[in-house]
Inverse folding.
RNA sequence: GGCUCCGUGGCUCAAUGGAUAGAGCAUCUGACUACGGAUCAGAAGGUUAGAGGUUCGAGUCCUCUCGGAGUCACCA
């Protein structure tokens, strides 16, 4: 059993035996002892001083004596200001290291037979993926990896928003102004090609709007509706949707196209398929470059009519109610929310209807008891309501639903805006970080033994590691400011810093293999140095960190762990010699320790979707 | 305005209610004739937005104030 658990249980027993009062296990707090004190683990004694009716130090001393007697792994203890510091026999750490060395799956838990769906990315098909998608995708991918590591079987799902106004704009634009051009004819990545037509549509629409604003009718609206504290520009910005829906000729054309699509007009469907096909082709490349894949794709064109049967059931169960105009609502005022529409008066769906239906379909398809939706925090309210409704409907999977909400990615100059052309494209960004990594490799002159292809592959791993680590080290909930320059940093708290520690280890291991060095002598190593102990305690915490990341749906725990471990290793490397160690035992022990660190770093970074190079 | 989230050195971020709030970047100073210097060591930089409260103990929990973001669609 894990030493921390042993201590925890022993402390609970001690409290009961010494002071005659049982205590909850979770009240027993065991922390790694801070560097400046003697010991490996620390028991916080304060929670028991009341029960003990003694001063903290006296109680700590009593508990320490008890533990020393009853926990065989404990070699010594000391008390500082109510903290009980325990030292663990070196033999324990020796055994622990061997355990890690022999288990290449160290950190992973056995399969638990339960399923979890993780939904992420969920793009619109009218334009290419951007920086915001990258954060979403990295979080989703990593979250799936982490849940897999703690034992769940994972279904990675994507809901493709392939229908609606947006794609119609791209379609209309291409049909009207495209002159029959294709991605091939123009030599443009196909999703970008479609996106360019979307942008063109917005441009034409803007031009139409500006002309309209000068008409008499428009000026009439301006005078009538503009609020006193609004500038003319602000008014037109706010009025844009209304204008598009009521007065725009392009708006008419788009709605007409949408209606044709909904009535299965064959020419429209053909155009739709052609353009979506282009987009998917482009997405495929982007996903491939990001190193992610999906197990299941849901298409909104297949799901947008779902959920009406659930609305019927909800009415029958009196969870929902009908208003005079036949529209269906749920009253969530007792849960701190408002009334929410779930079906329009004319019987057509809204976003919520569709999500209700999709939730049930997902469950019917896979029977996942947990389901994670990776969606930006703009939609917090939507998901609160969605989950609350499903709970009230008594859906069996309702308790396992989780919205992994993350903050938007902003640039140092503020929010990304399509209109202002400040959207950072995913493909461009990846190409740029890899290019910079490649330049860096060349500058360092380490390329001597590398072929062109090898160098490109290493540059890819380094560049992507820089980008991914930069994004995933931040707590998901936090809005993050994406600084393009910092994202390609290769030094300090970065992906490449961690990769470098791995490469150092890899260098050692190559030599071990080449010289066929036997590590059995490690068992004779007597005096574990502080730098070594630091690595051991870090490795020891790895499974707990993964569990924590899984419980919190938070990959940043793993990122921070990997950074701390790499940092400790770099220090170890600098302070202590491995091959030139004083004794054969020390050399073997350090090699064994290095291998364990390397293995753990590789797995940890793998959970973040980051690959490790052998050389760099 | 209601609800939700956020506020930690110049900047970007850490810190299951526990010991002197930690890192990185930037700035300054050092360390290879050494297993790879994408490294290491050191300096400087903080009233954790502010005020109360709970607690043996608060960056963390509660209340209020200030500042920022999101949301409050028969859009998705």
């Amino acid at each position: 059993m894990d030493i921390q658990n042993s201590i925890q249980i022993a402390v609970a027993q001690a409290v009961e035996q010494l002071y005659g009062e049982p205590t909850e296990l979770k009240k027993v707090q065991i922390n790694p002892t801070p560097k400046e004190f003697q010991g490996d683990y620390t028991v916080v004694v304060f929670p028991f001083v009341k029960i003990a009716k003694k001063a903290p130090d006296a109680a700590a001393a009593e508990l320490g004596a008890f533990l020393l007697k009853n926990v065989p792994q404990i070699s010594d203890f000391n008390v500082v200001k109510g903290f009980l510091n325990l030292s663990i026999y070196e033999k324990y750490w020796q055994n622990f290291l061997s355990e890690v060395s022999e288990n290449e799956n160290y950190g992973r838990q056995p399969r638990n037979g339960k399923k979890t769906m993780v939904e992420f990315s969920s793009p619109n098909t009218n334009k290419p993926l951007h920086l915001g998608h990258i954060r979403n995708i990295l979080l989703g991918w990593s979250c799936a990896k982490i849940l897999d590591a703690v034992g769940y079987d994972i279904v990675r799902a994507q809901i493709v928003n392939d229908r609606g106004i947006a794609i119609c704009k791209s379609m209309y634009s291409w049909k009207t102004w495209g002159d029959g051009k294709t991605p091939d004819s123009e030599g443009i990545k196909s999703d970008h090609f479609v996106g360019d037509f979307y942008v063109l549509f917005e441009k034409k629409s803007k031009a139409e709007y500006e002309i309209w604003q000068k008409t008499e009718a428009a000026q009439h609206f301006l005078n009538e509706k503009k609020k006193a504290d609004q500038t003319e520009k602000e008014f037109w910005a706010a009025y844009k949707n209304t204008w598009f829906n009521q007065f725009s000729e392009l708006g008419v054309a788009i709605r007409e196209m949408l209606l044709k699509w909904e009535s299965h007009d064959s020419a429209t469907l053909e155009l739709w398929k052609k353009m979506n096909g282009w987009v998917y082709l482009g997405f495929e490349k982007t996903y491939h470059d990001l190193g992610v894949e999906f197990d299941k794709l849901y298409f909104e064109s297949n799901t947008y009519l779902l959920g009406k049967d659930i609305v019927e059931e909800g009415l029958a169960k009196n969870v929902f109610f009908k208003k005079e105009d036949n529209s269906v609502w749920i009253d969530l005022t007792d849960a701190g929310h408002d009334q929410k529409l779930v079906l329009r008066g004319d019987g057509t769906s809204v976003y919520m209807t569709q999500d209700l239906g999709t939730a049930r379909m997902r469950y019917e398809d896979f029977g996942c008891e947990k389901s994670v939706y990776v969606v930006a925090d703009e939609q917090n309210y939507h998901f609160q309501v969605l989950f609350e409704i499903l709970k009230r409907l008594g859906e069996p999977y309702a308790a396992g639903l989780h919205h992994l909400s993350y903050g938007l990615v902003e640039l140092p100059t503020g929010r990304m805006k399509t209109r202002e052309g400040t959207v950072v494209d995913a493909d461009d960004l990846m190409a740029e970080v890899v290019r910079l990594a490649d330049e860096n490799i060349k500058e360092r002159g380490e390329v001597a033994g590398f072929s062109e292809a090898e160098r490109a592959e290493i540059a890819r791993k380094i560049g992507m590691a820089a980008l991914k680590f930069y994004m995933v080290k931040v707590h998901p909930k936090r809005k993050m400011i994406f600084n393009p320059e910092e994202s390609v940093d290769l030094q300090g708290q970065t992906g490449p810093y961690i990769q470098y520690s791995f490469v150092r280890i890899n260098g050692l291991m190559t030599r071990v293999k080449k010289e066929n060095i036997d590590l059995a002598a490690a068992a004779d190593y007597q005096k574990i140095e502080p730098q070594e102990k630091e690595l051991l305690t870090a490795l020891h915490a790895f499974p707990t960190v993964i569990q924590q990341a899984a419980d919190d749906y938070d990959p940043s725990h793993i990122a921070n762990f990997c950074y701390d471990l790499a940092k400790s290793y770099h220090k170890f490397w600098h302070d202590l010699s491995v091959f030139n160690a004083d004794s054969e035992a020390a050399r073997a022990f350090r090699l064994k320790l290095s291998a364990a660190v390397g293995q753990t770093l590789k797995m940890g970074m793998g959970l973040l979707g980051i690959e490790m190079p052998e050389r760099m």
